[in-house]
Write a structure and sequence with these properties.
Blueprint (H helix, E strand, L loop, with lengths): L8 E6 L6 H16 L4 E6 L13 E5 L3 E5 L2 E4 L6 H19 L3 E5 L10 H7 L5 E7 L5 H11 L1 H8 L2 E5 L7 H4 L4 H4 L2 E3 L13 H8 L6 E6 L7 H14 L5 E6 L6 H10 L5 E4 L5 H7 L2 E4 L3 H7 L6 E3 L8 H11 L4 E2 L7 H13 L13 H12 L38
Parallel strand pairs: 1-2, 1-6, 2-3, 6-7, 7-8, 8-9, 10-11, 10-13, 11-12, 13-14, 14-15
Antiparallel strand pairs: 4-5
Helix pairs in contact: 1-15, 2-3, 9-14
């Protein structure tokens, strides 16, 4: 890097082989960063199978890597290419490194994985060491059960990578809800690098809700509107299937209309099956909507899984959100739903209790209960705080990062929609 760029530059690494959760959060941060520095440049390196799904803010562009997916611990495979995984990994590794050296960022934000998929970020992090680049790791607060994360991070050398390569770690959550350092066994010298930003959410929607309610309720203006969402929808069929089977009991004694937003990753065959089964029921199956936040505000009740993004958006709804977390393979969604429900921010139906009868009962209880003010409101300023931290990093010189090892841890289908979709506003992605 022989010269320094004239404008501020932020480089983001976002690995998202299935879903769009990480890409959604980093896109929100990039937009907030550019809102404060309109003449800056943000480049996101990502590998989502859908590519540049979200509309880019002026000053923001994307570099698409060949997509890979994680089949199990330490077991990855290409999504589309027929090449051996080792060849694809080598290509990705060199592309990331060459891009970073050419782009000359002031700040590098690595999302979720401190060393990247299969360690692919390590050569880039090492190559940037001689240069005045601030390196920041961004983490959603709850990753998985503490024992699982501690074991996985120890095997992968994640904390060693944090100590050697990262100046700061941004946690997209609240410490009083989930203390990352304590739960995941961060040593004191590393926990000092943690900054809890609050939950990363889209800017509040100011669009009127009346058109949304008219669209679904039509002549049944006195009916209640239930909006069901599950992020990208890749693993949402169980919830949607149960919801469809629960609706007959739900409407037996009340007027309810359900808008079921499947997300772009629900398999086409499952979407078609749902479309067939809802005939004659007050259910509208939609692949995606252009204004998800307005849909959430318009609903009398939101039924959703408990992925980070959908849940974070739903936190602004008082207790009008009923979360049904997935059973596995990770404990992330169950942990999030449980902790949020304990604080009165959402309602929760544990996955082991999910049945048409239980879901209908939980929905009736939620619809009949008056909305009460939260005793303690969730911190929804994560987008602004995290972007502010990245902005501040562009003005500072890097601190020294210890290079000593820690030792043992302290502990591509077209998007089918029934209306035009502004992808930059699409509420999807559960990772």
């Amino acid at each position: 890097m022989p010269t320094r760029p004239t404008e501020e530059r932020l480089l983001i690494y976002s690995q998202d082989g299935l879903g769009l959760g990480h890409l959604r959060r980093t896109t929100l941060l990039a937009s907030a960063f550019l809102a404060a520095r309109p003449n800056a440049s943000v480049l996101t390196i990502s590998d989502s199978p859908i590519g540049q799904f979200f509309a880019a803010t002026p000053g923001h562009d994307y570099l698409k890597l060949p997509s890979i997916r994680k089949a199990g611990p330490g077991n990855w495979s290409p999504v589309s290419l027929s090449s051996p995984f080792s060849d694809v990994l080598a290509m990705r590794r060199e592309t990331i490194r060459a891009t970073a050296l050419s782009f000359e960022p002031d700040v590098l934000l690595v999302d979720h994985m401190p060393h990247g998929a299969m360690g692919e970020m390590v050569p880039t992090l090492e190559a940037l060491e001689p240069f005045p680049v601030r390196t920041v790791l961004g983490l959603r607060d709850i990753l998985d059960a503490p024992a699982t994360v501690r074991q996985r991070w120890q095997l992968e050398g994640a904390l060693e990578a944090v100590e050697r390569h990262f100046h700061d770690v941004l946690v997209y959550g609240s410490r009083d809800v989930f203390d990352v350092a304590t739960q995941y066994g961060w040593p004191t010298r590393l926990s000092r690098r943690l900054t809890y930003c609050g939950y990363v959410c889209s800017p509040p929607s100011t669009s009127p809700i009346a058109p949304v309610r008219r669209r679904y309720l039509r002549d049944a203006r006195d009916a209640e509107l239930v909006v069901a969402m599950a992020g990208g929808g890749a693993d949402a069929y169980t919830l949607f299937d149960t919801l469809v089977r629960a609706v007959p009991a739900l409407v037996s004694n009340r007027r309810v209309v359900v808008a079921l937003v499947t997300g772009p990753f629900l398999p086409a065959a499952q979407r078609a099956e749902l479309q067939r089964r809802v005939r004659g029921l007050p259910i509208r199956v939609i692949s995606a909507v252009s204004d998800p936040l307005t849909h959430l505000r318009a609903a009398d009740l939101v039924v959703a899984m408990a992925g980070y993004n959908t849940t974070a958006e739903a936190l602004s709804l008082a207790d009008r959100a009923l979360l049904v977390p997935r059973a596995g393979p990770s404990a992330e969604q169950q942990m999030r739903a449980s902790r949020f429900a304990e604080r009165g921010w959402v309602r929760r139906l544990p996955p082991e209790q999910l049945s048409p009868e239980a879901l209908a009962s939980a929905m009736v209880e939620a619809l009949d209960s008056p909305v009460t003010p939260m005793s303690t409101a969730p911190d929804l300023a994560g987008r602004q705080r995290a972007a502010g931290h990245l902005l501040a990093e562009t003005d500072g010189a890097p601190d020294e990062i210890g290079d000593h090892a820690l030792g043992p841890a302290a502990d591509a289908v077209p998007l089918a929609v029934d209306e035009p979709v502004d992808a930059s506003k699409q509420l999807i992605s559960e990772r």
